[in-house]
Design brief:
Helices cover 76% and strands 0% of the residues. The chain has 80 residues and is mostly helical. The protein has one domain. Helix 1 runs antiparallel to helix 2. The structure holds zinc ion.
């Protein structure tokens, strides 16, 4: 209902989705590297994965804080 009324919610949601998409890409690339026994590539991707995972955790915390404090998404309060 009010899902598009808060620009900050949209921005935070978009940042979280971008990080999750990056993690999916990295996980797929890591799987390929491991399957093909390209260990240097695997370890390099793993380092990137850890950095993006940490950034994703931060983005999620900010997103949940916004949902809790701003209450612009009534349906999301329980999940946050
Ligand atoms: Zn909001």
């Amino acid at each position: 209902m009010q899902s598009s009324s808060c620009p900050e919610y949209k921005l935070l949601q978009s940042e979280l989705m971008t990080k999750l998409e990056t993690l999916m890409w990295l996980a797929t690339a890591e799987l390929d590297a491991l399957r093909n026994e390209h260990y240097e590539t695997f370890m390099s991707l793993e380092s990137q994965f850890e950095l993006v995972f940490s950034a994703k955790q931060n983005a999620l915390a900010v997103f949940r804080k916004h949902l809790t404090e701003h209450r612009c998404q009534p349906g999301a309060i329980a999940a946050a």
